[in-house]
Amino acid sequence: KPKTFTFKVVLLGESAVGKSSLVTRFARNQFDQYKESTIGAAFVTKEVPLDSNAIANLHIWDTAGQERYKSLAPMYYRNAAAAIVVYDITQAESFGKAKSWVQELKRQAGSAIVIALAGNKTDLSNRRTVSREEGSSYAESLGLLFFETSAQSGENVEELFSELAKKIPRS
Ligand code: GTP
Ligand code: MG
Fold first, then answer.
1. Sequence-ordered strand ranges (E) for 73-144
2. In the chain, what percentage of residues exceed pLDDT 70?
3. Which UniProt keywords apply (predicted)?
4. Which residue of 10, 26, 51, 74 has the fewest C-beta atoms within 10 A of its own C-beta?
5. CA nearest ligand 1 atom 15, residue
């Protein structure tokens, strides 16, 4: 029977980039156009297969992106096995914010943390202000996993969580 590995995963990024929407798409395959902004943080668990004899039980902390909650973030990324840093491809300034989260994780989180960068809202590509190349070359320069996603259409959402889980060392 498959072995289960429990991994703590944290989502970080500016308010309204779609962190909660990505989690809801992944965990419940739903999307809400009028999702309310997260207060503090939200916790969700979801299992994802790793291979034929291993399953990851992801303990997902979906943090609040509003500035007033910024000081809480270390409580959630400390001891996390992995982090997903999210930006909105239609909001260039959210990409800048994502870069600063990556820098903070590199400085303050454990050195073994696995980081994925997610450029969300690809369904709004007609309003894109961050190119795929900008995102992917930044991610590549720092050894981050990179996906462009849409919580609305579901594009790459399963892949994001699944590939991230596969990159976490199993102990
Ligand atoms: P905070 O909790 O404030 O940090 O925000 P958040 O990052 O959790 O964003 P949330 O998931 O609440 O989404 C913000 C808004 O963007 C909502 O209106 C969502 O419906 C919308 N949204 C999220 N993902 C997508 C997407 O992929 N495409 C489109 N078109 N809208 C999205
Ligand atoms: Mg949220």
1. 82-88, 114-120
2. 100
3. Nucleotide-binding
4. 51
5. 16
Q: pLDDT by residue (tens digit) across 59-73? A: 999 999 999 999 999
| CA 42 – CA 84 distance, rounded (Å) | 15
Q: How many angstroms is it from 171 CA to the middle of ligand 1?
A: 34
Complex prediction ipTM = 0.99
Residues 6+ apart with CB under 8 A from 36: none
* HSE toward the beta carbon, residue 23, CA cutoff 13 A: 26
Alpha-carbon dihedral sign for residues 15, 16, 20, 22:
negative
Ligand 2 centre from 116 Cα, in Å?
Answer: 17
Name residue, tokens 């291979």: 51
Residue with tokens 């992944």: 26
Question: 123, 155 in Cβ contact below 8 A?
Answer: yes
Mean pLDDT of 123-152: 98
DSSP structural state of residue 18: S
The encoded tokens of residue 132 equal 């795929």
Rounded to an integer, what is the distance from CA 78 to the centroid of its chain?
A: 15
Q: Which residues lie closer than 8 Å to 8 by C-beta, 6 or more apart? A: 59, 61, 79, 80, 81, 82
Record the pTM. 0.98
